[in-house]
Amino acid sequence: MNWVRPVSDSPTGELSLQQINIAGLQEPKLFDIIRIPFIDPKPSYFQPENVLIDSTIPWQKIGGYDQAGINKLLDIPNSLWENLGSRNDRVPTDILKSNPPLSSLYFIKPSEFILYNKIRELGNLQTRAVFTYNDVQYDLVVTDPVIKEKFKEEGVGTYKFNRDVYMCVSLGEGFHLEHYKLVASVFEIESDLSANPKVKAYTFKEIRVDYPQAYAPWTTEDDQLLLKKFKDNCSIDEMAAFFQRKSGASASRLKKLGVI
């Protein structure tokens, strides 16, 4: 899919609330089809889709997208940009400059999606998403303001969605010579598209009843044992039972180790 990212003339390109309003002071909603006045393309080495908006002309809603056809919009990249071992939540600036991405926006349908809140070293609450895409597990910061606000009151914990999850992932601005992969938006679609989203909360303790080592870091010893079992032709399910993790975790780790 050929996406565009509307940006302003501010240093970071961020749009203000005043700039994203439709004529009549309506706020854009999910699946709205909107005519946005642009001035010029404003690509960067890490965000080629950026287009400068004309802030003097209001946006115009011209229709709505049929949610039943949402799967037609899905991107199918092989991976979410460069995956560098266990630090696959970011891409070094020098890599992006030497090999600029064709897209910094992907609309995907992940599997094994879980949201969690944690307290950072500075004491503030951070919302992150753990999910699997194309057999690789990711743990990315969530910047979706609606989701962050919704789960802010829930506090520290892990939260599992009951329905199919769709999300937009993006490459963020440079920070200490790295660009972080961000979950820019998250939403659920039910097969009948009728009910309101419902979220059930889980703690790590509850998840680890079935998978005691779920989301625990892989150690060097774990990697060596995993590689040995792979060479011994153990099945993914056998590895999962041995390491007390989900099957997807073992497969994802083998892929990171470069053997599958």
Beginning-to-end CA distance, first to last residue: 28 Å
Number of helices: 6
Mean pLDDT: 83
Integer-rounded radius of gyration: 20 Å
Task: Please tally the β strands and state the result.
Answer: 14
Uncertain ranges:
191-204
Helix content: 10-25%
Largest sheet: 9 strands, mixed
Instruction: Name the helix and strand elements from N-terminus to C-terminus, one letter apiece.
Output: EEEEEEHEEEEHEEEEHHHH
Beta-strand content: 25-35%
Structural classification:
alpha+beta
* Gross geometry: globular
Characterise this structure.
This protein has 260 residues and is α+β, with helices and mostly antiparallel strands. The protein is 18% helix and 33% strand. The chain is built from 6 helices and 14 strands. Strands 6, 7, 8, 9, 10, 11, 12, 13 and 14 form a 9-stranded mixed beta sheet that branches. Strands 1-4-3 form a 3-stranded mixed beta sheet, with no helix packed on it. A hairpin with a 2-residue loop joins strand 12 (164-175) and strand 13 (178-189). Helix 5 (236-243) crosses helix 6 (247-256). The longest helix has 12 residues, at 220-231.
